[in-house]
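Changelog entry: the Membrane metalloprotease record was regenerated in this release. Current contents:
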Amino acid sequence: MIRFKKLLIIFVAIGFVFSCTKDDPNDPKNGGVNRTANLKTLGASATDLLSDVKFTSMNLEIVYVEGNKPADEAISEFQSFLQERIYKPDGISITLRSVPSSGKAPFTIEEIVEIEKEERTAYNAGDEIAVWIYFADGSNEKDTNEKFVLGSAFRNTSMVIYEQTIKEFANRNGSPSRAIIEAATLNHEFGHLFGLVDLGTEPVSNHEDSENQGHCNGDGCLMRASIEFGSGVVDVINGSGVPELDEACIDDLQSVGGR
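Regenerated structure tokens:
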């Protein structure tokens, strides 16, 4: 987005592939919920998230550990970002609910996947696509004093926000507000769910950062690596609030059904 030379803020986009056997308890034939459409690789549902061809509404299930509820301002900014980029004539619904701590912090992404299995209740149904967002009460296990993770998009409709890390960063002198950092993290990670940059959505033009896979090389873009690493995120947020997608990224989204 005062300068922190040693501060590295990383939004991690990690894809997982899961397969189901004939005895999968989630199979509707076995009396469960068919979850396979929500267990795809990162970026695989870009068109479904952006367009109204298959899904005319979106259900955002935001689950937060008690004491780690995102700010109302952040959720409002996030919803505005989505409304500006997607076609969902039947609307975007947001449900927030608290859950007890898993006690697993600091987290591996595999542990977040296990938490999703236990806590997620919203899956694609009919013409409604569902997204699961988890606000964790701890940090990523790979964090150091010089590098830490704010959020990770790890499947086609799943992401984690490391809320405890965001709160600690927001408390530093000269840092942006917690709400602004939350909104920037949510928007950025959803950009990865949209397949940006070249993470499932093929770029219309050559704008991927050659040194930072999955990120844009446009100045000030929401998906630019300089917003994530070093003092870049602080500079951009302080200068203009939550960063926006640049023209190249918007072109990519429009090419697969977005606004």
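The CA atoms of residues 216 and 224 lie 4 Å apart.
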